[in-house]
Write a structure and sequence with these properties.
2 helices; 3-stranded antiparallel β-sheet; Helix Hairpins; alpha+beta; 55% helix; 3 strands
């Protein structure tokens, strides 16, 4: 469907052949005559299969790395919590300050990993 108001129309299509997916970006450029009527339409098919495959590798990599980082960060946070609760003895002020700094850093890394996971999930829905 061509709308007379649009000069360019873009569409991404997926074609499966022999169990392999191919991706094409299709761009249609409308050429209008003097009366603003469509005279010609130039259509360009661009094979972007390689780009889509790279995008999927990137999304999978980010997801894997994020999950791999989350496990040790959780262990660190649990260890810090056990130490902070004085289960192994009383802590002096300097030790408490160090544990607080560790908690803050681990929380910052946890937030970063959570954001990476969200980005990965959003991108995997688009890829």
């Amino acid at each position: 469907v061509i709308n007379n108001d649009d000069e360019n129309i873009e569409k991404l299509i997926e074609i499966t052949k022999n169990n392999k997916k191919y991706f094409f970006n299709i761009t249609a450029t409308i050429i209008k005559g003097s009366e603003k009527k469509i005279n010609e339409v130039v259509v360009l098919f661009k094979n972007i299969t390689g780009l889509k495959e790279l995008e999927m590798v990137k999304v999978n990599f980010i997801g894997t790395i994020s999950h791999e980082l989350k496990t040790p960060l959780t262990s660190i946070m649990m260890g810090v919590g056990l130490i902070s609760n004085s289960n192994i003895g009383r802590l002096n002020k300097k030790q408490e300050d160090i544990l607080e700094a560790i908690k803050e850093d681990v929380q910052r890394l946890n937030d970063l990993v959570s954001n990476l996971l969200k980005i990965s999930q959003i991108q995997s829905n688009r890829a």
